[in-house]
């Protein structure tokens, strides 16, 4: 990856629908070399997919809940089972295995508290959990899908 690739990624993270010709113009490349770079980054898995970012309120999932899970089960089989259970819940938009006091952390989006309660009841009916703690977000201060590229390893292309 070089500085031009990083510029391309910055532009794509802001708007993945931007035409390749425009991206090329903004980074100082013609269309074909720019397209080749994007294709290479897709092949290498740097660009995993291109998606539309939706307004949660307009699709009726404006309530965000952070769900902390503790378990007494710390083995591969249970972890696979839990992961499989979570895959069947579209409300879970992020799911992490954690270090520290909490074993797993989920970000859940729902329309309201009643929908979260229904989610919770379905969850505990499918898997045994030691402790579940829920924190409702009162407001969103920052949200982005753009990853910081300052840490990306860049080949010195000035040589």
From TrEMBL:
Residues 1-64 form the HTH asnC-type domain. Signal peptide: none annotated. Pfam families: AsnC_trans_reg, HTH_AsnC-type. It comes from the Bacteria. Keywords: DNA-binding, Transcription, Transcription regulation. The keyword Plastid does not apply. This is Lrp/AsnC family transcriptional regulator. It comes from Devosia albogilva.
């Amino acid at each position: 990856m070089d500085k031009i690739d990083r510029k391309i990624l910055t532009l794509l993270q802001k708007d993945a629908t931007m035409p390749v010709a425009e991206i090329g113009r903004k980074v100082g490349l013609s269309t074909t070399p720019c397209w080749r770079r994007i294709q290479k980054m897709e092949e290498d898995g740097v660009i995993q997919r291109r998606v539309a970012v939706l307004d949660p309120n307009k699709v009726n999932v404006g309530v965000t809940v952070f769900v902390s899970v503790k378990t007494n089960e710390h083995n591969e089989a249970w972890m696979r089972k839990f992961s499989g259970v979570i895959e069947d819940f579209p409300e879970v938009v992020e799911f992490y295995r954690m270090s520290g006091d909490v074993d797993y952390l989920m970000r859940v989006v729902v329309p309201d508290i009643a929908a979260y309660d229904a989610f919770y009841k379905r969850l505990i009916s499918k898997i045994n959990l030691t402790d579940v703690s829920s924190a409702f977000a009162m407001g969103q201060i920052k949200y982005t899908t753009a990853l910081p590229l300052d840490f990306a390893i860049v080949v010195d292309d000035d040589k």
